[in-house]
Write a structure and sequence with these properties.
Number of helices: 9
Order of helices and strands: HHEHEHHHEEHHH
Distance between the termini: 69 Å
Mean pLDDT: 86
Shape: elongated
CATH class of the domain at 40-191: Mainly Alpha
Structural class: mainly alpha
CATH superfamily of the domain at 40-191: Cytochrome c-like domain
Number of strands: 4
Low-confidence stretches: 11-26
Length: 226
Amino acid sequence: MKTHAIKFFRRLAAIALLAPALAIAATALHLDKAPVSTDPQKLQNGARTFVNYCLNCHSASLVRYNQLQKIGFDKETIEKDLIFTGGDAGSMMTVAMTPADAEAWFGTATPDLSLIARSRASEAGSGGDYLYTYLRSFYKDENRPTGWNNKVFPSVGMPHAMWNLQDGQPAEKYDETVADLVSFLVWMGEPVAETRKFIGIFVLIFLVGYYVLTHKLGKSYWKNIH
């Protein structure tokens, strides 16, 4: 009898420990793989979408407009086609809307997007995967103040800023537009990522060569001692 009771309580404890994990698995967020690209043309397309559809409410206060020269824009194009506030290429990518205005209009302050791609990374996927899925998951909801809701972020305060693009072009074309925008947001979070990776290759080559050299020197030094 005592043995059966012990087994029962062990099983009960195992179920109690497993239940949270099962609950998390049941509600796990599924993210689509984002086709993030470093192609300059796609990054430029994403930048244009960003300044036209995101920069009205969201700032990118850690980035200057002239940083866009790294993805192929020249200064004249930046100041003529991408800046709508009268600033110059050295200006930060900020917006006029204050946090208080955002609270009044959307119920919450709008996040700065400088590092949004990096901050949204999780076990479910990269930050790019999250943004790519999020921007393609809006649906009409008359119960929401903005008329829109989102499957990835339920009860989100943000309206579907690119609804006219989604309704005005084939789904594949909209997905491509979102992919270019996400590629730009990923690039904006770490503009030197490609340079870092390039340098990293040479650092690894140096470390391997240094290891081989020191190993041979060590063997040459100790062979006469032993």
